[in-house]
Design goal:
This protein is an alpha/beta fold. The protein has one domain (about 5-170): Rossmann fold, CATH 3.40.50.360. The protein is about 40% helix and about 20% strand. The protein contains five helices and eight strands, in the order βαβαβαβαββββα. The strands form two sheets. Strands 1, 2, 3, 4, 5 and 6 form a six-stranded parallel beta sheet that branches. The chain has a two-stranded antiparallel ribbon with strand order 7-8. Strand 1 (about 5), helix 1 and strand 2 (about 35-40) form a beta-alpha-beta unit. The longest helix is centred in the last third of the chain and has 18 residues, at about 155-170. It starts with a strand and ends with a helix.
Length: about 170
């Protein structure tokens, strides 16, 4: 099984990246063929439409997502929405090639409001791509991360459960 872990924050050193790096490291212990996509480092070109030329990084990232069987998508909440970097990435994905894949969602916010709205938006995006989504998303707030590490044991447990349950759902 091929797995991708997507950190959808465009900000370098973002808390979303810390959350998703933890998830990636755990997922890698469960499935060796796991790849990390960090949208703060892997600069994806702004989608301009079909027939345009895009960078090698952009095209390889789109292939990695398309070819993966399981997606773990982590997004911050920005202005009550998921990351525009995530939306931009999915402009490159052909929905005709993604039916039956499986996804898990992790969402990070400054406070504990808006999680279900953003989860529903991401699940709507996954539904468009005909991806089966684990309904148990992980919600984390920035106060659960300190000095580049997740300090909340319950959050760590929930991230691990998300990986375990999503991989089980995919199999």
């Amino acid at each position: 099984m091929k797995v991708v872990v997507i950190s959808a924050s465009p900000r370098k050193g973002a808390n979303t990246q810390i959350m998703m790096e933890y998830l990636y490291n755990y997922a890698k212990t469960k499935n060796a063929d796991t790849k990390f996509i960090d949208l703060s480092k892997d600069k994806i070109d702004c989608y301009q439409g079909l027939g345009e030329s895009y960078s090698q990084i952009t095209m390889q990232t789109a292939r990695d997502v398309t070819e993966a069987d399981v997606w773990f998508v982590g997004s911050p909440i920005y202005n009550s929405l998921f990351s525009s970097a995530l939306k931009n990435l999915f402009e490159y994905i052909n929905y005709k090639e993604t039916a039956g894949k499986t996804a898990g969602i992790a969402i990070l916010a400054s406070g504990s409001i808006g999680f279900t709205n953003v989860q529903n938006m991401i699940m709507g995006l996954m539904s468009y791509f005909r991806v089966i989504t684990n309904p148990k998303a992980v919600y984390m707030t920035v106060d659960q991360i300190k000095d580049g590490k997740i300090i909340d044991e319950k959050a760590i447990t929930r991230l691990r459960e998300l990986v375990d349950e999503t991989l089980k759902l995919a199999s």
